[in-house]
């Protein structure tokens, strides 16, 4: 039966491959990519690799390499990449390999500048129409490195060469924030204003004109607005800041949360204290406890004293807890967690079976995943809260790394940030499916967190992240404490 299935698959692939575009190929082989056995995946990889001898274009190589990557067949992926690079030395595959291997691994601005010049010399942008974004990525990365080294003039010069307006805010914003953190407001302000103005342009387009590029550019509005308005607030230009914020609230009400901090400060600065107090109260009730000093100040000014503050504060926190409890109901599940035995940074084996009797928090992450990293301070705080609880174990599962030197990079990342995490490498493939553990858990995007109870059952599953440390602490506490309790099946409505 298996031989017949593989023979049929081989024939099907051979007959139809040349006519299929990449999205069609992915769609055609999706069942095998997602649920196929290891034997089926290996057979598909063999067929695709064999068909490469008939390829006439670089795009055919790229499409097949991407499918081999999805099949996690690194040997054939690298072999085919090597063939393609020799066949198309001035093509995009060779260029992209150089960018990955040389440019992104270069340390320091001098090495990155040298690599960038090499890219633009061997693979000039004019030879790759509609691929300007690839070069914008390099410019933004190089500018970011220069900014971290305090070379603001050079950083701004490279940013000025970016061509894709919808994406340039992703280069301008982090560089502006880096310069701002270093105290270089003069260089930071125009970058942040450009990022803000670009995002505003896209967010204010008529709905019928908003394509995916416009929607992507719009997402950065709150961040760029907050950073730029923060400069105005620090300068005492509260009225100007308030005008910009209220304009933003009109065209992008969904971004109100991201602007709340600069909004209440601007309201305070212009004497609109009651409105500022209302914004502050909402912020605090969402777990932004770092605003408490300002909340106390306004409470005393508006009420004439601090009488009743503690009760008021406790009420806000209780409302937050109740909101989290309601929210985590949406994350509830109940199924046996896949077993695993993975290596930690010291090379020691850690298995789920060895942790039976404990509540286990799994956090799937990667060094390239900014949302993952953004939540780490909060996860560190949550772990610290349970450091004396022998019945709770946090495990940070490093997965989907893209670099061959990922183990070295992971160790370097953890040591650099001094995170006291138990990190496991998710690189042990299932002999039947070829999946790593993330796949066995059904992870389709990271960060992804699972709360497993003492009996080895997944009780909660959540995705996404927030930089709000206090909120993460409270959310994790509710999840962990709920998982400690016996499972109760939802009552029939």
From TrEMBL:
Highest taxon above the source species: Bacteria
Family annotation (CDD domains): TlpA_like_family
Signal sequence interval, chain numbering: 1-18
Domain Thioredoxin: residue ranges: 331-485
Keyword Transport assigned: no
Keyword Nucleotide-binding appears in the UniProt entry: no
Pfam families with a match to the protein in the record: AhpC-TSA
InterPro entries: AhpC/TSA, Thioredoxin-like_sf, Thioredoxin_domain, Thioredoxin_ResA/DsbE_sf, TPR-like_helical_dom_sf
Keyword vocabulary terms for this entry: Signal
PROSITE patterns listed in its UniProt record: THIOREDOXIN_2
TM stretches of this protein: none
Protein name per UniProt: TlpA disulfide reductase family protein
Organism: Sphingobacterium oryzagri
